[in-house]
Design brief:
Length: about 450
Amino acid sequence: MTSSDFPSEKRSYGLVVVGAGPGGFDAALEAAGEGIKVALVEKELLGGTCLNVGCIPTKLYLGATSPVEELEAQSKAKVAKGEIEIDFNALCTKKDRFIAATRKAMEQKAKNLGIDIYRATAKILEPGKVEVSRPGETAVLEYENLVLATGSHPTVFPGLEPDNETILDNTGFLSLTEMPESLLVIGAGFIGLEMAQIAHRTGCRITVVDAMDRVAVYEDPEVSKALQGIFKRRKWDIRLGVKVRSVSAENGKAVLRTEDGDELVADKALIAIGRRPNSSGIGLEALGIETAGPGFVKVNENLEAAANVYAIGDLNGHILLAHAASHQAGYVVRRIAGKTDGPYEHGPVPSILYGSPETMRVGSMPADLEGKGKVETSSFPLVANPIAQAYASTQGFVKVIWLDGKVAGITAVGHHVSGFTTAAAMIVQEGWTENDIHKVVFPHPSLDEALLGALKADKQAL
Ligand code: FAD
């Protein structure tokens, strides 16, 4: 079936997948690979949030602008001079072309595997039946198994509503064809901080506002402090502990008003205050599926929301990251294919904030381990690492968290620290002790040696 076909009669599938983001698309691909007849229903674009308005465009922007940041560091170290300018228009074109080509390749891959793609909105009708509809057309798909992977959308509060002209969400920001001279960023989480870095690198003045008392609140407090220090050195205006009352577009400017009566004005504002699940309107009530918090679909230990119905990715709210969605997809398909009957388990899930500096975190942080045993930390400053010196980017550190003598978590902040995330995840997964440090040869010179340095450093009890 081509994507333009729409069934006039009922069609039956071994698996119907709703949503073609990283979770849904991977589930469809893996199931087709198992010989299961698959329908993939997507109401917008193949690739979902991640490919179109999330992970990929932000990293294309950060990757392309990274040399500017690196040259600035070298220029501060007085070993480079002159100016280099980003052609933002050319960058937007490159981004749009890459994403469109990726979508095309995804569609081709799905078709080659015999997956039926429906460009339509899906809604559960009753156990075993999903309605797919688009203007003027409706059809019913019968399923043996259903995977719901409808993802999430930006959180909106009254008074903080994007118009995507002056007040932007992630989609609006990534649609800009010209960077404003000044940008208010509301929310100092990873989306806000990555986008603020992109804007800063293209010459924009940044003001970051957050209600919390530190940036990147999900990170270890020492990591937040280091990040904040680096951004402040770049002359970002960072205002913490500030409760925003409203952000409005007034005379072409973004005007932010705080609960304390202060006012901040910039050319544009970016609202990046979290994500909410896409769980309404998909017919959960037809199967008695429950939600929790802002609408995350409740699942059991097998990621099942109802019999033969799975909810994966951002929709279940476990971990709002693309690789978590893909990992859950793999488990669900193995389960459907009869290759596993145990509960869903994942090892340590890494989390990265991209840019320069980057942060990486995997496993447990000290705050997670209170009362669980003897907690110690050991760390290594990047200033003592030759590769960090070579890049003239020496701010930051690697920190290892030990629980009862075993590595329970690793975090780092600094230039390019995401490079050793997988190694760190394996060390945490294996629960290395001091004796394991010599099992692996770390290359020299490398930033990975900062990780080795942190593993070997004297431990501090907490
Ligand atoms: P989504 O990718 O949101 O896909 C869901 C799909 O379902 C959408 O295409 C939607 O149109 C479709 N859909 C919804 N309802 C229906 C319906 N009723 N019928 C048919 N289709 C429907 N994660 C990372 O791991 N690394 C990163 O670097 C990273 N960067 C990010 C940067 C930004 C700016 C943002 C916003 C997010 C970022 N994320 C990142 C998070 C990542 O994008 C999400 O965790 C991931 O996309 C979740 O995948 P998903 O499959 O659950 O849902």
